[in-house]
Amino acid sequence: MKKILLIITFSLLPYTLYTANSEEIEITPNDLPSKYTLVSDGALQTFHPRSFYDMPSMQGTLPAPLRKRYQTLALNEKPVGSILYFEYKEGENLNAVLSFLKGLLWGSHMSPSKAYPEELYVFQNIIIIFSLPYESSESDMVLDIFKKKTGLDLRNEYIKLDNYESKTYTIPDSGNLLLHIPQPFKDQFSEPQEDRPASLDLVIPNSKEFSINIAIYPSPNTENFYDGENLRNLIKKYGNRYLENSIESKVQIKKLSGINRTGYYYVLTDKSMANQNVPEGKYRYLIQGGIRTGEILVVFVILSKDKIDSNEILSLFNMLKLARHIPNR
């Protein structure tokens, strides 16, 4: 079946220069290859970005941007698609805005597709929406321009979910936790008990290569609930407990960055398994960390026999980056 591409044209605000942050990333004509130009009308792949552009605060339910801006790319004078910028005040918490946009732009799939091709990125206090054809060369071109301007590759914020199953887990009195479980892992959820939080075990059927446990801690309604440096220190404290039996001389904390959130983790190697085949039921590597989403802290333990950089581990990290707390209404 021939693909039908919906292009909506519209007129927005006149061209305006914004603050220094926006100027760092906005495209200029000199940034573009030959045959590409910037034109005045917008060109959107779906109507969803337009609805957000018209009312970004959603009648006061979301933080309002200080400024909004769009640019439209044209190839041989024919509009291809638009890039929309929403600049917020410095230090604004954008979690609610991003959660809303992911649902608005992509629905339950939570990732771009041929039907809903918009891409969502964050640079400092600026939210950027690409309304360009799905997996287009123009998207790569603009990302390369942004990388040249900022030194950052925004592709690292981006994960496709074709091989993930979206599942929601109810956390009593705390809403729900949305996770995208990677194939071929299967999940088993355990309700919270008096002496332990809710938890999730992930296994690959007929394989003992990995053992994964995820503990889910709701916020105790205290300020700075395991965020930023508090979370980093907590994870390092966990790692120091196992350091004596590890090859490593100290715990090296690494970042696990998702959209507008940062988690931390470490990797340790079991000293007793360093130079031998790992017997059944034992593991060479321990990966432990945590990442906060909304008012939930997700603490994970990944045990691996022989791999710390496999596709399975990468897919688990992707799952954690996209973890989403859905509070009770």
Question: How would you characterize this protein structure?
Answer:
This protein is an alpha+beta fold and 329 residues long. It folds into two domains: 8-157, no CATH class; 164-326, Mog1/PsbP, alpha/beta/alpha sandwich (Protein Transport Mog1p, Chain A, 3-Layer(aba) Sandwich). The protein is built from six helices and 17 strands. The protein has helices spanning 20-25, 48-54, 95-106, 137-150, 229-242, 311-321, and strands at 8-10, 36-39, 42-44, 67-75, 78-87, 119-123, 126-131, 164-171, 175-182, 186-190, 198-203, 210-218, 254-258, 261-269, 285-293, 296-304, 324-326. The strands form four sheets. It has a seven-stranded antiparallel sheet, sandwiched between helices. A five-stranded antiparallel sheet has the order 2-4-5-7-6, with helices on one face. A hairpin with a 2-residue loop joins strand 13 (254-258) and strand 14 (261-269). The longest helix has 14 residues, at 137-150. The chain is globular, with a radius of gyration of 22 Å.
